[in-house]
Amino acid sequence: MTDAPVFDDLLVEDREFPPDPVFAAQANVRDPAIYARARANPVAFWEEQARELEWFAPWSRAFEWTPPHCRWFLGGKINITHNCLDRHLAGPRRNKAALIWEGEPGGVRTMTYLQLHREVCKFANVLRSLGVVRGDRVAIYLPMVPEAAVAMLACARIGAIHSVVFGGFSAESLSDRINDSECKVVITADGGWRRGTIVPLKSETDKALESCPSVNHVIVVKRSPGEPFPCQIREGRDHWYHRLMEGPAARAKCPAEPMDAEDVLYILYTSGTTGKPKGIVHTTGGYAVSVHATTKWVFDIKEDDIYWCSADVGWVTGHSYVVYGPLMCGATVLMYEGAPNHPGNDRFWQIIDDHRVTIFYTAPTAIRAFMKWGHQHPAKHDLSSLRLLGTVGEPINPEAWMWYHEHIGRGRCPIVDTWWQTETGAIMISGLPGLTTMKPGHAGVPIPGIEATVLDEQGNEVKEGSGLLAITHPWPSMLRTIWGDDERFVKTYLSKWDAKTYFPGDGAKRDDRGNFMILGRVDDVLNVAGHRIGTMEVESALVDHELVAEAAVVGRRHDIKGQAIVAFVTLKGRAKMTDSLRDDLKQHVATKIGAIARPEDIIFTADLPKTRSGKIMRRLLRDIAEGRALGDTTTLADASVVEALRESYEEKYGG
Ligand code: WT7
């Protein structure tokens, strides 16, 4: 028996927010006929979108599909950085701010399109001088500083494949990722600011590199003017970014390499149900097309917008909607380095007020934290510049949606609830702000050119009630594979029903107008603060501890983070179940994976509930962790295990 999906399927939502006519009249997408036009011929529709970008050579075939593999714009030559930068230099946009950056301790840096172009070209030449060639992998482990965008774009400029690793991940996570794709170069920083303290990225990198034979060079960005943060520079291997950029290699001329549409643009690792993170592979042409079109449609980007997406570049949102999408659209991107509650709980509202931000895109977990801190914080600020709000990362509870609408949007701003994944590369389901009647908790309908439905386990369409979300036709920014593991790619995404239907791993239901409500993950993947964490990763980190025999990890509903991690652990031999061991284990996970994966609770148990075939029944553990009545226990090998476990859990947590 498989674990049944756990959904909160009882939510009925009837509040509706039709588009404001004034907004609708100026929107980038005004004509609802776009949906029918896309459906009539999706490939021709995407070709039309592709023509909005500049190509060095046209494609000869728009689409090829030999399931499970799709290819888009075959034979086309393009460079995404030409579309992000060079294309904007021909007219007055060259002198417009491309990036406005604010550091956590304060300090603002602004780079025009011309300046960003120059910086990217120089750094691309620097990378070449260190031996980086087309197809090489480069790891980027940086705080949210402008150099993170520069590094990504410089790689893309010369056809090197970037692999950005979130700065909150540990040395071990970094080395796993570096080794999986054999990166040659790592770009990091002496440190970055987060909630008033310095995150020592270079020291973590040094630890990681003890086991990374492929890395020849490390480039270190000095975060602040003056003395660097304490860190070691190893002669020969390590180079300061600013020195290289002053050196002879950093020539300002660097024509964009004409890339094949299907050349790999980047790898980005994400969690799955097994221990090893998956290196999601995105290629160049199709990715550029989907990301450009969705940025324009969903965020309604205009020439004078100041657009702020609060995601870190370490996540896919930071790739598609901090760097590539808005820059392809020629927007002004605001980038902020630090925490939302430093120095005060109103930091984000201060930033919006100071920079006159017009479009703001964030995650439900942040919105719930803002709700908890109270609306007096946004109330102190002038948020009248805002005209559009967005959310992404997990289902947004209708109450959080309403709070966002009222206290941030002040009742004036449409909210786009955007469903997508690292694997999809771009937004897949979302309202379009000039067309869609928004409903709290509903992501809306698939964007034009995307075909999605709800299926049951057998692949029958579910018209009413909940089922599994499915995408029935490939789209341009679809992941092409998992780096080095085509088999896992097929197994994870394209074999649930057949080789033609993509399985995202989410539950969904539709209302009578076809609006999708996303109900959360149906596999064992956790969603903590909008980020996917594989149960197996955390379990492996626990079992790595010398006193742990076995571990099972589940998510428990959490008011702010969406889910909190609860670990059930059995110990070896005579190890004592003490509070200090509990703390040790939590720290062990944080050290192995990163603070984001630190379990909130560790429950010691003599046994774990298993099926007769030895499979851990996480569904029952979830019931226990959430204090629910236990579901079907008849398939357990030993039913007393779970009763004992529940009793000890209730003793500790009061049920
Ligand atoms: C998973 C993907 C895409 C960028 C951020 C996360 C969940 C994402 C929504 C939404 C409900 C959402 C899904 C999805 N998710 N957006 N608007 N409503 N759920 O990227 O780490 O690849 O996670 O996030 O469960 O599968 P990711």
In words, what does this structure look like?
This protein is α/β, with parallel strands linked by helices. The chain has two domains: 21-491 and 502-508, ANL, N-terminal domain (Rossmann fold); 525-653, 2-Layer Sandwich (GMP Synthetase, Chain A, domain 3). It contains 20 helices and 30 strands. The strands form eight sheets. An eight-stranded mixed sheet has the order 12-11-8-6-7-14-15-23, with helices on both faces. It has a seven-stranded mixed sheet with strand order 5-4-17-16-18-19-20, with helices on both faces. Strand 1 (61-66) and strand 2 form a beta hairpin. Helix 10 packs across helix 11 (316-328) and helix 13 crosses helix 15 (398-408). The chain is globular and about 75 Å long. Mean pLDDT is 94; it is low at 1-6. It binds 5'-O-[(S)-butoxy(hydroxy)phosphoryl]adenosine. Residues 270, 316-317, 392-395, 417-422, 443, 504-506, 518, 520-521, 527, 531-532 line the site of 5'-O-[(S)-butoxy(hydroxy)phosphoryl]adenosine (WT7). 5'-O-[(S)-butoxy(hydroxy)phosphoryl]adenosine (WT7) is lined by residues 270, 316-317, 392-395, 417-422, 443, 504-506, 518, 520-521, 527, 531-532.
List the helices and strands and how they pair.
Blueprint: H1 21-26, H2 33-40, H3 42-50, E1 61-66, E2 69-74, E3 77-78, H4 80-84, E4 97-102, E5 108-112, H5 113-129, E6 137-141, H6 146-158, E7 161-164, H7 171-180, E8 185-189, E9 192-194, E10 197-199, H8 201-209, E11 217-221, E12 238-240, H9 241-246, E13 259-260, E14 264-270, E15 278-283, H10 285-298, E16 306-309, H11 316-328, E17 332-336, H12 347-355, E18 359-362, H13 364-373, H14 376-379, E19 388-391, H15 398-408, E20 415-417, E21 452-455, E22 466-471, E23 481-482, H16 486-493, E24 506-510, E25 516-521, E26 526-528, E27 531-533, H17 535-543, E28 548-558, E29 562-571, H18 579-592, E30 601-604, H19 618-625, H20 639-653
Parallel strand pairs: 4-17, 6-7, 6-8, 7-14, 8-11, 11-12, 16-17, 16-18, 18-19, 19-20, 29-30
Antiparallel strand pairs: 1-2, 3-13, 4-5, 9-10, 14-15, 15-23, 21-22, 22-24, 24-25, 26-27, 28-29
Helix pairs in contact: 2-3, 5-6, 7-8, 10-11, 13-15, 19-20
